[in-house]
Design brief:
Elements: H1 2-17, H2 23-39, H3 42-55, H4 61-72, H5 76-87, H6 94-109, H7 118-140, E1 157-162, H8 171-185, E2 190-195, E3 221-227, E4 230-236, H9 244-257, E5 261-265, H10 270-278, E6 283-286, E7 299-301, H11 314-321, E8 324-325, E9 351-355, H12 359-362, H13 365-376, E10 382-386, H14 392-396, E11 405-409, H15 414-418, E12 423-425, H16 433-441, E13 446-449, H17 453-458, E14 463-464, H18 467-479, H19 481-498, H20 501-520
Parallel strand pairs: 1-2, 1-5, 2-4, 5-6, 6-7, 7-8, 9-10, 9-12, 10-11, 12-13, 13-14
Antiparallel strand pairs: 3-4
Helix pairs in contact: 1-2, 1-3, 2-4, 3-4, 4-5, 5-6, 6-7, 7-10, 8-20, 13-18, 16-19, 18-19
């Protein structure tokens, strides 16, 4: 093992001491770290991390400790980064804090953290860091929205503020548009989507791995967005820099629109939180994923009816518990042509579907080994992977049953695909709620571990406690037609229970009125 440690240590050290970086070199550095994380066993990775921690230059805290986190999954290293940035006080550029925050959040979303610290890190460290960032932006950049006088009567005008708005293939974009168009068309409100594009759009430091979110340059200014035969006005801000000028323009636009209610669509929404922090306008946050959502909104909705705050350690629970309200995110089915032809399944007697937009990250080696074991138990069955994943075909080829897998890439009509499938296999991941919801609607039973968005959407009837039970459930759906027929009926019934997006919009408005009442009473946060 020592020779392997020496080799990996030397390769990584070369990047840790380097002082000249461009985008290509950052990507090579990140790819090297990802290779070590995927291909090297844990004891060896820990040994490499120990050597780097001892020997690497300590001048770039963000670079060193982000790499050490990639190797170990130990949140101690993210704590070091947060404390380093916070101790810098007003001398730290808010753009560096913002970029580091989102790079960390993405890794946490992808399940990279290990150990016992995960139970308190988000509720304590990351939440307080976000809170400090919002206050720093308000103070340093003089971005304190004026307090509006609450209007009389019911809510008439709503600003739906989102960090990213891309296209109709992007699940959060579809959901944001759907909520906005329903409030407008079915409830008669004046609604505008405020597309802040405040996910990182350029690299700000040497955090590894980097994060640069998709930004649609053509979505600039004020325009009417049409999707699925409906139209909603959008104000979109496409400057890639996280800057005083950009945030000032967005805050002024929201304030000038004079909404009765601001809906923070998703957490970590700095613009919405600037209004919430000062009680300038009532803010309700709709989470786009299950579990704990970081937000300063006056009311913080759940992704489902379960009170996730009960799992937060007592010391950190209060800021979340007093603002939490039960909710169901709901889904609106996308249009379908009904038939996609044969996507390459031939006469396979049974097809499992694995669907996602991040399958290169979420189809981990452990999950692919699980797929292999499922196929061992299901002679003749196929597993179809839907979603852009350039690296996945090569990894599937190495499986024992690689010949019984199919990589379909992006599938435009996901409901048509599900009508050719018999079960939905969910990787162990935080996301996957939309894919699972649409599968249920088409009567496709879901197999998922008991955590993450897919588990929240599918409900306890479709969750399993461990790997062995996962294989047994999948194999049982393959082998027992009667069990599968019962599961098909249960899937459709579950979607009918959780999929009513109109009811969700109605509840959102009720919570909006409660937020307005809190502001009037001077209670806010």
């Amino acid at each position: 093992m020592s020779d392997m440690v020496e080799a990996w240590d030397a390769a990584l050290m070369g990047y840790l001491v380097d002082r000249e970086f461009d985008a290509d070199k950052i990507n090579r550095f990140s790819a090297l770290c990802e290779t070590v994380r995927r291909e090297v066993d844990r004891p060896t990775r820990l040994a490499i991390a120990e050597r780097l921690h001892r020997d690497a230059p300590s001048g770039d805290t963000v670079r060193l400790h982000s790499v050490l986190f990639m190797l170990t999954g130990d949140l101690y290293h993210y704590e070091r980064i947060l404390h380093y940035l916070l101790l810098g006080g007003d001398s730290v550029d808010p753009a560096l804090m913002h970029y580091s925050y989102w790079c960390m959040s993405r890794q946490l979303f992808l399940g990279a953290a290990t150990g016992d610290k995960a139970g308190s890190f988000v509720a304590c460290d990351l939440y307080r860091f976000h809170e400090a960032l919002v206050r720093l932006v308000a103070r340093r950049w003089s971005l304190t929205p004026p307090v509006a006088v609450p209007g009389d009567g019911p809510i008439r005008r709503v600003a739906m503020v989102t960090n990213q708005f891309v296209n109709d293939r992007h699940q959060p974009t579809r959901d944001c548009f759907d909520f906005a168009s329903r409030l407008q068309d079915e409830f008669g409100l004046d609604v505008a989507i405020i597309n802040t594009n405040l996910l990182p759009a350029r690299v700000e430091n040497l955090f590894i791995p980097p994060m640069v979110a998709e930004l649609v340059e053509e979505f600039d200014g004020v325009f009417a967005m049409e999707m699925f035969g409906r139209r909603v006005k959008v104000a979109s801000f496409t400057d890639r820099a996280f800057s005083q000028a950009k945030l000032s323009a967005i805050v002024e636009a929201v304030d000038g629109y004079n909404p009765d209610l601001i809906v923070s669509f998703g957490g970590s929404n700095i613009v919405a939180d600037l209004f919430a922090e000062t009680g300038a306008r009532p803010v309700v946050c709709i989470p786009t994923t299950s579990g704990l959502t970081i937000s300063l909104a006056h009311i913080l909705l759940g992704f489902d009816e379960q009170d996730y705050t009960v799992s937060i350690p007592d010391l950190y629970r209060a800021p979340f518990a007093r603002r939490f309200r039960p909710f169901t995110f709901g889904y609106t089915l996308p249009p379908t042509r009904g038939d996609m032809g044969d996507p390459g399944f031939g006469d396979a007697p049974f097809v499992f579907a694995v669907v996602g937009t991040r399958l290169d990250e979420e189809a981990t080696p452990d999950f692919l080994a699980l797929v292999d074991d499922v196929l061992d138990r299901c002679p003749g069955a196929l597993v179809a992977f839907a979603g852009r994943a350039p690296a996945l075909p090569g990894r599937l080829a190495s499986l024992r049953n690689g010949g019984r897998t199919r990589c379909l890439g992006h599938v435009a009509d996901i409901r048509a695909l599900y009508r050719r499938c018999h079960a939905f296999l969910n990787p162990g991941r935080q996301g996957g709620g939309g894919g699972a919801g649409y599968a249920l609607a088409e009567g496709v039973p879901v197999v998922t571990f008991a955590w993450g968005d897919a588990a929240s959407v599918a409900g306890p009837a479709f969750t399993v406690p461990d790997r062995a039970a996962y294989i047994d459930r999948a194999a049982g759906l393959f082998a027992d037609p009667d069990a599968r027929r019962r599961a098909v009926d249960a899937a459709r019934a579950r979607f009918a229970e959780i999929g009513d997006r109109r009811r969700c919009a109605e509840r959102l408005l009720a919570y909006g009125e409660e937020a307005r009442a809190l502001i009037r009473a001077g209670r806010g946060n």
